[in-house]
Write a structure and sequence with these properties.
With about 230 residues, the protein is mainly alpha-helical. About 45% of the residues lie in helices and about 10% in strands. It is built from ten helices and eight strands. The strands form three sheets. It has a three-stranded parallel sheet with strand order 2-4-5. α6 links the parallel β6 and β7. α3 runs antiparallel to α9. It starts with a strand and ends with a helix. It comes from Emiliania huxleyi.
């Protein structure tokens, strides 16, 4: 049996995490198990504010802070036997690390004898040219619909398309639920393990939004008020 510790998923900003992200990792683990790998660990790596905040500003939506996204992710997977949260990417000072750099940093921490796989969606894989692999880092694509072509010799695998209720979930739905103070809906999107009261605690205990670059300020305060008060 091949030993493996895998793999960081980054097909979007994870602004914030939802159940679909966790399901992707489990689907990827299932595909690797079927190929003969032993999957010992999976990691979710929330994106750096340097990526999330400018992207959110450009699309006119709330850029949830790294602190908030990390806390929500940790609460969502704390009972998951496979998935945990990696904070290295979100916590880096200065410029944001891109996904190849994050993968290499994790490979360095795992040491030898284990192979890392990067898990992503089909659009991200196509946009970043991952169909031919990432060298020493493997790739598992989890499509929403029809599967793409695999290249196992290059470490590229395709899991079964996402299914069930969580396949339709998105970070947009979570942000809308938070803005409307609909903590029951936010709980359903995040994880069955995260009660509505826990969502309220996460909102109360963490800065919800930051200005681009993670610096807080007027924009961050404005968005925090929007989430705290709901939309008129």
């Amino acid at each position: 049996t091949r030993r493996l510790r895998r793999g960081r998923r980054s097909s979007g900003a994870m602004n914030p995490l939802h159940r679909g992200h966790v399901d992707m990792l489990h689907a990827a683990a299932g595909r690797l198990h079927a190929h003969g790998f032993h999957v010992s660990q999976a990691y979710l790596s929330p994106s750096h504010d340097g990526y999330v905040q400018p992207k959110a500003a450009a699309s006119g939506t709330i850029g949830l802070s790294a602190a908030f996204r990390l806390c929500a992710a940790q609460r969502a997977v704390e009972a998951d036997p496979l998935v945990s949260v990696a904070a290295w990417e979100a916590a880096q000072p200065g410029e944001r690390p891109d996904f190849p750099e994050v993968c290499e940093a994790l490979r360095g921490r795992l040491g030898g004898g284990r192979r890392l796989f990067y898990v992503c969606g089909a659009d991200h894989a196509a946009r970043c040219g991952l169909g031919g692999g990432m060298g020493e880092v493997g790739v598992v694509v989890v499509p929403r619909a029809l599967p793409a072509a695999e290249q196992p010799a290059r470490g590229v695998f395709v899991a079964s398309p996402a299914r069930g209720e969580a396949a339709a979930f998105s970070s947009t739905l979570v942000r809308e639920a938070l803005a409307e103070r609909d903590f029951e809906a936010a709980s359903r999107y995040l994880s069955p393990a995260v009660a509505p009261s826990t969502v309220l605690c996460i909102v109360s205990e963490n800065p919800v939004a930051d200005a681009p670059g993670g610096g807080g300020g007027a924009a961050g305060a404005e968005e925090r008020r929007a989430v705290g008060a709901g939309r008129k």
